[in-house]
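$ ./design --mode recover --in tokens.txt
reading tokens...
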């Protein structure tokens, strides 16, 4: 067995700060990795916040002690909220899987319309003053037309960090709101979840699950789940739906990512955290900054829709690397990886910002 060392209404939009401009290319990056993945908080803007500063205001601000930066609190602000969207299941070859016939509306069956996507909710909460994290991944029964507000819940998969049976074996996070979690499923099975926030839109994210079976000395990829989600409002524990205001649509049957835009040489700004040390905790922040160059080969890729992909690689010494990536704009991607030792123990988690070398 694997061991580890260690809702809102659509009308309830908050006033938002303008979206930040696209991040510069890696040639201009000189700040720490944790900052390079950080984005402007979702905050309410007071009418007074736009008033001109006076000399007394400046003097008062200078007299206040500097607040110590808290990475987990930053992560909590960026990850928490109601995330609505669509999800789909894929085979280990990347083929989308149809929803069970029993949940498909009769109108679809009569017209022989195949349904691949679940409408989903994912109320997510990380407590800023304690390292606790939880979410509910909710699948809704498919509806015909714009009936999402009356949709019925089909299943709820609740997960958290802590001492529960569904607790993560390991949890790595970036202040941006991205994270990687390893979840036990029992019967020598586990899921590696990669959550990636778009650098261009802090209210857009993808979550990719790699279902893995442990067989003697092997770790076998069984299937993949993908959720494409939009931030819909503050955390309300899923008590309301985005309904017809959801800013995304089903994607499972759309074209897969072209291998030509993913394979090749890339420059990676990489952060990581290690889990193989005896004192490693369950929850760790990816830190550090190093620039490496990699070559991604087409044969290693499982190509998915929405400019997504994943892979499973095995090194000569028996290490396995479970990776995912999101090409959020041409020539630029965000990625994450889990490295397992030859005896199926988690060693390292990495998160990266990548630029195709042909575009540098």
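writing sequence...
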């Amino acid at each position: 067995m694997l061991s580890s060392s260690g809702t809102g209404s659509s009308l309830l939009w908050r006033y938002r700060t303008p979206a930040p401009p696209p991040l510069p290319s890696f040639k201009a990056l000189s700040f720490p990795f944790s900052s390079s993945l950080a984005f402007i908080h979702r905050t309410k803007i007071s009418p007074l916040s736009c008033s001109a500063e006076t000399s007394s205001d400046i003097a008062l601000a200078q007299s206040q002690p500097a607040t110590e930066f808290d990475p987990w609190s930053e992560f909590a602000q960026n990850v928490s909220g109601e995330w609505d969207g669509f999800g789909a299941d894929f085979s280990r070859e990347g083929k989308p899987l149809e929803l069970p016939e029993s949940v498909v509306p009769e109108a679809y069956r009569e017209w022989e319309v195949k349904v691949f996507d679940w409408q989903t909710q994912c109320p997510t909460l990380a407590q800023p003053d304690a390292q606790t994290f939880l979410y509910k991944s909710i699948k809704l029964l498919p509806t015909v037309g714009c009936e999402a507000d009356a949709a019925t819940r089909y299943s709820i998969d609740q997960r958290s960090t802590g001492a529960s049976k569904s607790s993560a074996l390991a949890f790595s996070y970036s202040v941006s709101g991205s994270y990687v979690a390893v979840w036990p499923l029992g019967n020598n099975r586990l899921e590696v979840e990669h959550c990636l926030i778009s650098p261009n839109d802090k209210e857009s994210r993808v979550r990719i699950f790699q279902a893995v079976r442990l067989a003697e000395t092997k770790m076998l990829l069984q299937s993949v789940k993908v959720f494409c989600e939009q931030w819909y409002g503050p955390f309300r524990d899923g008590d309301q739906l985005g309904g017809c205001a959801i800013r995304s649509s089903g994607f499972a049957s759309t074209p897969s990512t072209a291998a030509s835009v993913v394979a090749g040489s890339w420059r990676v700004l990489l952060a990581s955290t290690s889990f193989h040390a005896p004192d490693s905790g369950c929850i760790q922040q990816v830190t550090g900054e190093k620039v490496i160059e990699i070559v991604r080969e087409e044969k290693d890729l499982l190509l998915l829709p929405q400019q997504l992909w994943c892979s499973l690689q095995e090194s000569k010494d028996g290490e396995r690397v479970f990776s995912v990536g999101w090409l959020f704009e041409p020539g630029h991607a965000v990625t994450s990886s889990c490295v397992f030792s030859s005896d199926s123990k988690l060693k390292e988690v990495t998160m990266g910002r990548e630029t195709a070398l042909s575009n540098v």
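exit 0
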